[in-house]
Fold:
Amino acid sequence: MKTDKINTIIDQPFEQVLTAARKAIVNNGFLLLQEINPQAILASHQIVIGPIRQLLFFHPAYMQQLLQADPDAVIEVPLKLVLREVDGHTTAVTYSDPVLQLQDYSGLEALGSELSQRVTALLKELL
Structure:
């Protein structure tokens, strides 16, 4: 696994974690921008996989800070959680550490740290 990725295993069913993740994103001041359902997309091509979702989230205030500091960093956002059913009672949650995502961009160290703290708080709501 890439070094900027963090994987957490949660001993809860997929749908329960998905519902909690949607709420936690909003509870922590982010906007849930998009929910991608690879399971449904692949099923439309006769490929069967287990439950998986990609939740894309961010906030306009952070986008403004990012654009002012280094517009090239836009490629790193929005932030994403990937939820994947491991089995009927366990869900894997994977995300990129914002500190590591933004570390190579000028003037974004503080923003990376703040985003990392907010994502950590979000994840604590899922545990």
Summary: The two ends are 22 Å apart (CA to CA). The beta strands are 5-10, 31-36, 52-58, 79-87, 90-96. The chain has a mean pLDDT of 95. The chain is about 40% helix and 30% strand.
